[in-house]
Amino acid sequence: MTSFFGSVFWLLVTLGVLVTFHEFGHYWVARRCGVKVLRFSVGFGNAVWKRIGRDGCEYRIAAIPLGGYVKMLDAREGVVPPQFESQEFTTQPVWKRILIVLAGPGFNLIFTVAALWLMFMLGRPDAAPIVTAKPQSMAAVAGIQPGDRILSVDGREVTTWSDSLDAVANALLGRTPLPLDIRDPDGAQRQLVFPLDKLPPGQTIDQYFTTLGLRLASPPAVAATVLDGQPAALAGMQGGDRILSVDGKPVADFETLGKLVQQDAAVSPKLAIVVERNGRTIPLEVVAERESLQGRPADWMIGIGAPPMETATLRYGPLRALHEALTGTWRQVTQTFGMIAKMLGGEASTKNLSSVIGIAQMANASAHMGLAWFLQFLAMVSLSLAVLNLLPIPVLDGGHLLYYLIELLKGSPLSEQAMAIGQYIGLVLLFSLMGLVFYNDIHRLLLS
């Protein structure tokens, strides 16, 4: 339940910030273009708070926080007093109306760059891109070995696990062969290619990642800490010992060690563990004990702690951070439009789209990871909001932009009947899209 309320809270924070910024773009440019603004609303429906500004504009927060709007003086909605005719929206030159429409998505892009710039300067803590692969998976067949470090993905240098994951995810959605530069634990570098074009079309990103089998490597099987009075200490294990085998089975990493302890202790708690210490091989007899920690189900324990994973913090100075923010925003814009084209062409699955349910879950998760992670999340949602609004669907900013571009070409506005038909079509498309993304998220929740 705590997760539920946390998700709702951080969703409201996310939508409140991004919708306000988007609508402020329309408002600010409209005012600069000499158009009278009657209402600035964050949310839809009845007002829960409002006030009238000195400029006569009503500022309000409404009950349904799934969007917002700026209401301008418009002759199509009623009689315009003579003294305000020059400030009416529809009589403005078409280039001014285009600027006003573009301002919302434009401000979202500005927010994206600003959020990423601040995130890069604060520094985003992350894991180093040291990986392994599930046996017989695509990544294993391509040549990934335990402890390999990813240096670049598709020619782009990466220094953190998340950046590697994002680059791989974009390639998975496009199902194109993906080259990687790798360095093994001994320092030797090599290049390999994931043949993502062999993946079947129409699957979700989670299914593609399962097939690929690439994952963050577990720490080495070293007893970083040995707890006094626990089975390992009683058997003579010391801090720094490297575990080589359990009951004759080789141990590749700390994750493998944990699985072997659970598996073998369930048969017999007495475990034959071989460790390496100062170049010597030492056999130990460890009697595992079954314990329950912090209310979780009981597990077999031997009382050792794993070494910390190698970390990497993504942090730049102001100028480098601005450059990375601009290039990152441009890269995401092109990838997003490319993915939309692939979805329309049937090359990528629409099952990867998420509604506010998925956004709420991601908002909660990123907020708990720290400010830098939440800023990155806000940047990505802001960019998505900009791209969504630029789609040529009537009722969205992109639909209005389409009307004005047609007006530029034909020399006169579209008829009210044509615009009304477009609005109905836009509503049908929008509600269909909303139904699809809600279905995707509900289906994912039921399967999880």
Keywords:
448 residues, alpha+beta, Pdz3 Domain, 4-stranded antiparallel sheet, 12 helices, 18 strands, 47% helix, elongated
Would you state the CATH class of the domain at 125-215 and 309-314? Mainly Beta
Q: Helical residue percent?
A: 40-55%
CATH topology of the domain at 125-215 and 309-314: Pdz3 Domain
Uncertain ranges = none
- Strand pairing plus helix content: what structural class? alpha+beta
Please state the second-level CATH architecture of the domain at 125-215 and 309-314.
Roll
**CATH level 4 superfamily of the domain at 125-215 and 309-314:** PDZ domain
Kindly, what is the distance between the CA atoms of the first and last residues, rounded to a whole number of angstroms?
A: 16 Å
Q: Strand-and-helix sequence, N→C?
A: HEEHEEHEEHEEHEEHEEHEEEEEEHHHHH
Based on the structure, what is the oligomeric state of the protein chains?
Answer: single chain
Average of the residue pLDDT scores: 89
What is the count of DSSP helices, taking H or I runs of 4+ residues? 12
Q: Major sheet, described briefly?
A: 6 strands, antiparallel
Radius of gyration based on Cα positions: 28 Å
Q: How much of the polypeptide forms β-strand, as a percent range?
A: 15-25%
> What characteristic shape results from the CA principal axes?
elongated
Q: How many runs of DSSP E, i.e. beta strands?
A: 18
Would you mind describing this structure in some detail?
The chain has 448 residues and is an alpha+beta fold. Among the domains are: 125-215 and 309-314, PDZ domain (Pdz3 Domain), CATH 2.30.42; 225-307, Roll (Pdz3 Domain). The chain is built from twelve helices and 18 strands. It has helices at residues 2-32, 94-122, 138-142, 161-174, 205-212, 231-234, 254-265, 318-344, 356-369, 371-390, 397-410, 416-447; strands at residues 37-52, 58-72, 124-127, 130-133, 148-153, 156-157, 178-183, 189-194, 214-216, 225-226, 242-246, 249-250, 270-277, 280-287, 289-291, 299-301, 304-305, 311-314. The strands form six sheets. Strands 4, 5, 6, 7, 8 and 9 form a six-stranded antiparallel β-sheet that branches. Strands 12-11-13-14 form a four-stranded antiparallel β-sheet. The two termini are 16 Å apart.
